[in-house]
Amino acid sequence: MKQNNLENKSANKQAPELAAKRANVPAALQQKANDFLNSNPVNTKALKQIVNLLENPDSNAVGIMYVLEVIFRNLLKRKLISTAENKTCKSNAKPQEPNATCQIQYNKAWSLLLANLGNASKEEAGTALKVCMQLIAAEAKHSRSKDWPVTRLRSILEALINAEATPTAALAEFAKFTRCLDVLQFTYQLLPGLAPKSYVDTPNLAFNYLAIINLLDLGKTVLNDKQFHIGPESTFDYDRTRQLLNKVWNGIIASCNGVDEKVHRQVLVVLLERILPHLKNPILLTDFLMDSLHQFDGPIALLALQGIFTLMQKQNITYPDVYQKLYNMFYPRMFYNKYKARLFYLADIFLTSTHLPENLVAAFAKRLARLALKSPTEDAIIMIRFICNLLLRHTGLQRLICATGAASAVEIADPYDETELDPVKSGALQSSLWELVLLQKHAVPEVANAAKFITKSLPMVEFDLSSLLETKECNIFDDEVKKEVKQFTMAYERPTNFALPQYDIVTKYWDIL
Q1: Domains in the chain: how many in total?
Q2: What is the pLDDT of residues 82-103, one digit of tens each?
Q3: Full domain range(s) for residue 454
Q4: What is the similarity comment for this entry (predicted)?
């Protein structure tokens, strides 16, 4: 059977990607599917055999899924299968009748597809999700009532939430469909009824539930695109969807007391990325964010600080200890923090104001300089550039460049106390940035060159830190390799002793035989 024969029988025109995938379907399966599509009346026995292949762990599951998609879209078009929203099979239909048998096999295939959403194979899990969504579109198109198959979408969400391990591949595929406004709205409509009963007793279900919410973006980019999964006749109501979002969040905040740190961190990520811009009363988050900031350390405290900063900007709340908390987030372990880029970003914003006390900003400059001595290469460059920006914003801090002889042989004590929790009391303003002089001897040329600003004239404009936040050490290594070497070390005398030049210093102490 040729590939185009199978495609001509499909209910809708297939995307090139699906056609490419289907090219890997075994010839025997292609022939069986083609015979079924050409049979009249419907050969239900052949349909059973094809569906049963999906239960075989050794079968080509991806190819079978694509074949089943084409078959069932064709059956839906021919009205041989009733949709989930509009059951058309008669109640007295006998199992051997084509309509009833096709319906049974369709429901069985749907269950097998849902079971594959949590598959360890990324390709199989992603394909199962994709086929399910394509069948939803086919049901809506060929339904007599033209209703959106909400029941089918609910079964997909249930399978994703109840997966034993987080279905990363299926979620990544589902994220592509959440950019469709109809999928977005109906998902928010279904989520309140699918929330785990206990976030504490079932943290895995809670994490999966939050992972789905993290895919639902109501941002301007998605709203302006106006994409719909099921045709232009679909409707979307932002105000209604926003009410549903607030309902979902109220359920989350009521259930997250006492959860483990992994779930708590995911709650904050969902809040900052998806929920906060659309909340009806964001000021009610103050207590939750304050408790998260004081009771936890590391990523949770950082995410809570970002939320507080947003409330300070949008709701005009005041938090007197915010700079002290930010200052104490800079410690060596933060280099291994997943959200360290957020920390640099937040610190840059918090320290933008030129009206901050000099002793406070000096403490941040000294803390960054001290950390740069023991940080990974990419972070050292960011902190050196950050210090330079602070000196440009607060010209009074330029006294740190030559305030004392802290780096000289005479001065052996640094008045800066790095163990002091209060940045104002750290004594940073009486110190100097001798750490940057030391960094000029760094083994990595890019770090050494970045630190040389301390002995030259300061630049006229600030450095853009955003371009550095995603830089990795491998990128720095690649850049160094690509540079042209201007000087080459060459041996001017032919070696005679194991590649050692004559009269080399090594030969004065050892005799090499």
Answers
A1: 1
A2: 766 555 444 444 443 447 888 8
A3: 357-404+413-485
A4: Belongs to the CBF/MAK21 family.
